[in-house]
Specification:
This protein is mainly α and 100 residues long. It is 51% helix and 0% strand. It is built from five helices and no strands. The termini are far apart.
């Protein structure tokens, strides 16, 4: 009985880690927002899922507070194609050299 419970906890932790690491950013933000509405701590969830704690909360502060906070919440900036999309990712171009 204890072995089954321990295995269940290990599987749940591994599934949470896989979701936090490999899900797209928009999905992670939606998960944080959904769990926050259920009463969990938003700052702790945002740290776990590696998202900004204020994004996706629905409070509307992303666009009105400051331009750096707006850039962190996914608002596109006008500084070109290499501008960061948000605070954790940047746009990268993979160049392929075809040899014939």
């Amino acid at each position: 009985m204890w072995q089954q419970m321990i295995v269940g906890v290990i599987v749940a932790v591994c599934a949470l880690h896989a979701c936090a690491r490999y899900m797209p950013l928009a999905w992670r933000q939606q998960v944080v927002y959904a769990l926050t509405r259920r009463g969990l701590d938003q700052a702790r969830l945002a740290k776990l899922f590696k998202t900004e704690s204020s994004c996706g909360s629905g409070c509307g502060s992303c666009g009105s507070a400051s331009s750096s906070k707006a850039a962190a919440c996914g608002t596109p900036s006008s500084s070109g194609p290499t501008a960061p999309i948000d605070s954790t990712t940047t746009r990268r171009v993979i160049r392929l050299h075809v040899q014939r």
